[in-house]
Design brief:
By secondary structure, the chain is of the alpha+beta class. Helices cover 33% and strands 41% of the residues. It contains four helices and six strands, in the order αααββαββββ. The chain has a six-stranded mixed sheet with strand order 2-1-6-5-4-3.
Amino acid sequence: MDHAQDQTQDQTQDGARLAAQLQALEAALQSRAVRADSARLAALLADEFVEFGSSGKLWTRAATLADLPAEDFCPRSISDFQARLLAEDVALVTYRSQRHASGALPASASLRSSLWKWRDGRWQMIFHQGTPIPG
């Protein structure tokens, strides 16, 4: 293999590691354990965090930390996950999220995107958006 092929292979491996790491963080944010734990949520959400929810509601970090631990939890799953570095310390992730039916809440699907920033030795989410998939 020549140097260019080595470099391409290294970038592919780095990209796969980044995607696996960020998918694990996204999955953690969808888990009951993290959603119910304000300290764990606070570590993952940057101070300037904002979300445009699939409900159409705007969520700030403060509102998320106040409301999420008390929510009626619905299990979720992730598919079609992709991650891309936009800068050395900023990554964009996109995926499809399925909320499974739970109690009175029906199943639903949405397209999701998040911006993650590498800060103080860890990734923190700075922006998230959910767009409902009709049907």
